[in-house]
Amino acid sequence: MQSKEAVAANLILMAEIVGVHGVKGQLKLKVFSEAPEDLQDYAPLCDAAGKEYKFLTFSPHKNIYLATLENIKDCDQAEKLRGTKLYVPRDRLPNIKDKDTYYHVDLIGVAAKDAAGIVIGKIINVANFGGGDLLEIKPVKGASYYVPFTKTNVPQVDIAKKEATVIVPPGLLD
């Protein structure tokens, strides 16, 4: 039997249930994917505990997606799922062919080094608030901060070595 950590390392976050739509148990999903419309292709998805969720319907709606899940029949059942994160096992996802493309989960925990190779912190999150991906860096001391995940600010990432070169924009930490 695999440890909880091994199972978690094998799961890739694909979506989060962020709300309910209507009275028949339809769910609002925020999808974390380059091709959100393909989410249903990876079903069934599961939560962190391994409980599976099967889609009956899945469609775009404004800036989110609406889904109906098997065995969810009303808004009370749906409301209990708010905040549930939905994962897919890594082996169901396509291999990444582009050397400059990464699954977000693979960036978490990577050491952030400056241009001289000195560790300045580590990547603790990848966020996107609508303007592109941002790496959240937790420095050796002090509060975390975000750096745009661009070639200019992150010119080199080595997943095998678990390190990335991070150029902090001038004035960001002042």
Please characterize this protein's 3D structure.
With 174 residues, the protein is mainly beta. It has 2 domains: 8-91, RimM (Elongation Factor Tu (Ef-tu), domain 3), CATH 2.40.30.60; 104-165, SH3 type barrels. Helices cover 9% and strands 40% of the residues. The protein has helices spanning 4-10, 75-79, 104-107; strands at residues 11-21, 26-31, 45-46, 52-53, 55-61, 64-69, 85-89, 111-113, 119-128, 133-139, 145-148, 156-158, 163-165. The strands form 3 sheets. Strands 11-10-9-8-13-12 form a 6-stranded mixed beta sheet. A 5-stranded antiparallel beta sheet has the order 5-6-2-1-7. A hairpin with a 4-residue loop joins strand 12 and strand 13 (163-165). The chain is elongated, with a radius of gyration of 18 Å.
Kindly report the spatial arrangement of strands forming the biggest sheet. Answer: 11-10-9-8-13-12
- What kind of sheet is the major sheet? 6 strands, mixed
N/C terminus separation: 49 Å
Q: Could you state the CATH homologous superfamily of the largest domain? A: RimM
State the domain count. Answer: 2
Shape: elongated
Helicity range: under 10%
* Radius of gyration (Å): 18 Å
List keywords for this structure.
174 residues; 40% strand; 6-stranded mixed β-sheet; SH3 type barrels; 5-stranded antiparallel β-sheet
Task: Describe the secondary-structure layout.
Elements: H1 4-10, E1 11-21, E2 26-31, E3 45-46, E4 52-53, E5 55-61, E6 64-69, H2 75-79, E7 85-89, H3 104-107, E8 111-113, E9 119-128, E10 133-139, E11 145-148, E12 156-158, E13 163-165
